[in-house]
Amino acid sequence: MIQVDVQHRLGSFELNAQFVSDGRVTALFGQSGSGKTSLVNIIGGLIRPDHAYISLNGDIIVDTKHKVFVPKHRRRVGYVFQEGRLFPHLTVRQNLLYGWWFTPGTKRVGQLAPIVELLGIGHLLDRRPGSLSGGEKQRVAIGRALLAKPRLLLMDEPLASLDEARKAEILPYLERLRDDTEVPIIYVSHSVPEVARLASTMVVMKDGLVVAAGPTSDIMARLDLVPFTNLLEAGAVLEADILEHDEQFGLTVLALCGGRLWVPRLNERTLGSKVRVHIRARDVMISTRRPEGLSALNVLRGVVAELAPQRGPILDLRLDCGGQAILARLTQRSVETLGLRPGTPVYAVIKTVGFDRQTLGAAFPQANGADTTAIPM
Amino acid sequence: MLTLTPEEQAAVDLSIRVSLWATVTSLAPGLVVAMLLSRGKFWGKSILNGIVFLPLILPPVVTGYILLLLFGRRGPLGAFLADNFGIVFAFRWTGAALACAVMGFPLLVRALQLSIDATDRGLEDAAGTLGANPAWVFVTVTLPLILPGIIAGTILSFARAMGEFGATITFVSNIPGETQTLPSAIYTFTQVPGGDVAAFRLTVIAIVVSMSALLISDAIGYFVGRRIGVEA
């Protein structure tokens, strides 16, 4: 449980952010300049805030009213920086063990081996950071932060400096980090796909203020927040069970919204396990009758729940499909033609090929972690 | 030709001893001052900066004379140090070392300051979040990263000390075997009839010593640079 209440002035920029989260991964989401990085710098102890109250599992690390300011080296808050910040004069192994060296002896349980295995960096141990690729550097940086046995891990756009291929390489490691360790993570990002795939809780920021905070699926389903997230990537985030794999056509079938959702084959997932699906609003079509003779495989039944206030020719709407929310983006013209209003029964049509590796990912294990193999930290 | 006279030998030995002492003893204060100038925010910073760099712009004779006033037997600092610690600078080789240290100090500080300015503060922050307190951050991150600057500054300071003449001769005079360094010896030989050969021999030695120092520093710099992955 992390509790944050910060007021801080940086030149003409005013940060005024409050949130509480007990999620596994809390995403601080917002466009550049919204104050996300300043906020994590304050949580990490790199900036001394004007006024703040920050506590971690009830342990106060900053309370300006009572003149409490725990210096960064005593916070045990790990930080993975955008640029990695590996020590160039040390080998990968020495980098990894740097924080471990400074943790109190009794807490030095986290061993090198499981974390090296988790991040797949065993073959890099004797090299120097200068010879690593961007993705390898970030994995080492994550391992280094974990080995210091943090109570909280801050990640400031850890993928932002990487190209798409490297991002795809690291995302599965981040999922494993989320699922196999017990360290809560605050993840700064302006990327909807990353947040949709990783975050359990979202804190949406704009101009130094927290606009909204809550579970990722709730936040992503809110039409009023679409302008704050990202118009292109906006869309519902849902969790679904894997029903079957279709070997012949290379597809996977998910149980969703009381119906079936066909997505490209998820090779690494076993039947019955949960996956996260990010259905972009722009990939969803609406029909008032069950469509026939259509190439799209996914047709889900639902009811129009809410229409967003009009913004030009485009209009977002939220559907209720068997209790789960799906966002769809239509033209104002189509909405008028189909006579859509709250309560109208509709069919949502979603192209299977609209899903890619960015919109599909592993779901969280259950909150109590019954099916997780946690690394002893 | 290759064997030195006892007098020449004494001048060479003394110069090396004086330069080593000057360099080694000024390193720690040089680091402190460079850190203050590079990182510190305090009142009087520009005054400190001025004092440190003054020997670079003053005529060496003036610096030597100021040292004589301050550290001479009757000078305020000289008397204090002699009475309380038994440290005497005036007309001793220690005085020559002090003069060399003062003259080389701006060069040392400048080199250190540049490399401190160039270090990524972000790496120090990262070390802090990993649990290292500021002292450990300095020892394990800052110091290794500025090592090339330390080497460059040390060599500059050593070379400056080997060549120091004006301040030394003004402060501690030119006593063979005690304060007659290589440059003072060369100067003396050029002043006496028939001293040309000896002056030339010492000149060659001065060139050899300085060149060696430069080459050694280059070699060390290359290896250190490779170690921390910086293209030298």
Notes on the structure:
Chain A folds into two domains: 2-220, Rossmann fold; 235-362, OB fold (Dihydrolipoamide Acetyltransferase, E2P). In chain A, 21% of the residues lie in helices and 35% in strands. Chain A contains eight helices and 21 strands. Chain A has helices at residues 36-44, 92-102, 112-119, 134-147, 164-180, 192-198, 216-220, 332-338, and strands at residues 2-10, 13-21, 25-29, 51-56, 59-63, 68-69, 77-80, 152-156, 185-189, 201-206, 209-215, 235-246, 251-256, 259-264, 274-280, 284-287, 298-307, 314-321, 324-331, 345-350, 360-362. In chain A, strands 7-8-9-3-10-11 form a six-stranded mixed beta sheet, sandwiched between helices. In chain A, strands 2-1-4-5-6 form a five-stranded antiparallel beta sheet, with helices on one face. The longest helix of chain A has 17 residues, at 164-180. The model of chain A is unreliable at 366-377 (pLDDT under 50). Chain B has 232 residues and is an all-alpha fold. Chain B has a single domain (6-227), classed as MetI-like fold (Orthogonal Bundle), CATH 1.10.3720.10. Chain B has eleven helices and no strands. The radius of gyration of chain B is 20 Å and the shape is globular. Classes of the chains: A alpha+beta (377), B mainly alpha (232). The A-B interface holds A 44-46, 71-79, 81, 83, 85, 87-89, 98-99, 102-103, 128-131, 144-145, 148 and B 120, 122-123, 125-134, 136-137, 140-141, 144-145, 227-230.
